[in-house]
Amino acid sequence: MSSLIILVFLLQFAGVSGERVFLYFRPGQDATLPCDRVSPEETQCSHISWYHQSDQTKAVFEGNQGKVCQTSARAARLRLVTGCSLIINNITAEDVGRYGCLSENTADDDSYVFLSVLTISSSAADADAQTDDRITLTCSLLRYLQVPLCPENSLQWVNETGAVLSGEGVGYELNGKKGCGSSLTVTRQSGQNRRHTCRFVERGSVKIDAEYTAVFTGTDGSLSYVMLALRIAGLILMMVATVAAVMIIRDRRNKKQLEDSNVHTGTISAANTVTTSNAASTEIYENVNPSAAPMLN
Ligand SMILES: *[C@@H]1O[C@H](CO)[C@@H](O)[C@H](O)[C@H]1NC(C)=O
Ligand SMILES: *[C@@H]1O[C@H](CO)[C@@H](O)[C@H](O)[C@H]1NC(C)=O
Fold first, then answer.
1. What CATH number is given to the structural domain containing 80?
2. Strand runs labelled E in 58-204
3. Cβ of 131 below 6 Å from ligand 1
């Protein structure tokens, strides 16, 4: 039933709506921008020009008289084909904007194609973050002038089973939206390699989606707790061993000093040596004292 509704929406809203076409891509895809000024079979495109506006202030000609403008920075990725359509290979964020198809033969308004790009990025791109238990995915829909603004709930996150995620749940946390962007924090709890999809939905139909598989490297959470406990235990053991070693050395040294001072300065100064010996030495003192006591007597 729901797929039928989506199909109806697709039929209703896909393709040309008047002279404004809205197209959605992911980076790396190839786009075909139709020119509404001519028939789809048209091969004579010498009266057709294409221009691109990334904002309202400037327009860059991409095609003139049916040929790609070699002055365009993107010339290598552009092609004009049958129907005077403009093909853009390997879409990037820079390709976002409004494209006008202009005919010299008509006084009609130019026909427009609005090209939007959905990007998804991950905090795991930082090498350090890869061993973290949390990976933050950021999804953005890049649009011409960002107008109209993305409607409420138009950017959605979906898990592997197709459930739309909201708020917080096992292994994930939605971090709210900003303009036409949304970010999701995935935790190790969700599983070792978990795929999440971000999608842009308009009037009930999915216009574009992009997926990302969060890969948690390193040890998993429960194991790292064990490792942490082991490390702490090891550290404590090392500290105890060090203190014990220091005490034994001090003990021996003090005994030796006592014997030496006994020989050279007599028993009184030997007692002083013991009481003034520093370094947490109540124990040392106690250890030494029994042997010192008989000498004081
Ligand atoms: C597409 O563009 C990206 C970055 O702009 C580049 O790294 C990649 O090599 C390009 N791919 C092709 C097939 O040209
Ligand atoms: C997807 O989300 C739903 C609802 O939160 C949950 O019941 C389901 O277990 C999740 N599936 C996976 C594979 O995480």
1. 2.60.40.10
2. 60-64, 67-68, 78-81, 85-88, 97-103, 111-122, 134-142, 155-158, 168-169, 172-178, 181-187, 193-202
3. no
Count of residues in the chain: 297
Return d(Cα 291, Cα 297) in angstroms, integer: 11
| Pair (91, 175) in one structural domain | no
Q: Which atom of ligand 2 is nearest to the CA of 162?
A: 1
Question: Which H or E element spans position 82?
Answer: none
155-158 sheet: strands from edge to edge: 155-158, 193-202, 205-215
**Pairing label, strands 48-53, 97-103:** antiparallel
State mean pLDDT over 10-23. 56
When pLDDT is averaged across residues 239-263 and rounded to a whole number, the result is 69
Looking at residue 229, its pLDDT comes to 66
pLDDT of 162-191, one tens digit each? Answer: 999 998 888 899 987 777 899 999 988 777
pTM above 0.70, yes or no: no
- Whole domain around residue 154: which residue ranges? 119-215
pLDDT at position 142 over 90: yes
Distance from the alpha carbon of residue 191 to the mean position of ligand 2, in angstroms:
11
Number of domains in the chain: 3
